[in-house]
Design goal:
single chain; mainly alpha; Helix Hairpins; 4 helices
Amino acid sequence: MELVLIGVIGVLFGCGTYLLLQHHLLQVVIGLSLYSHAANLSLMLSGGLEHGSPPLLTSPPPYTDPLPQALVLTAIVISFGMTAFAMVLAFRTRQVCDSNDINELAGGEE
């Protein structure tokens, strides 16, 4: 199961990198969102849960390890705020500059 999640994380990072290198602001924002999803999956994978076993540590008394879940919850809140800010920034840039092409905004040629 870990190999499948590692593959999904790699695909998400690859797609996020591809979208970050595009020329339109909305694709860049979606690429940042894919990066945050890949980071959340990698944090959950670092918890070390085994397939078919309860989410408990083996040392007595049995208890759950709350650190990976707390890190992912914090990362979800931060990524939601970052995505909302980037969407508003891209929308306002489109309104003011009448373009969403990064090369035009930077003053370069296409």
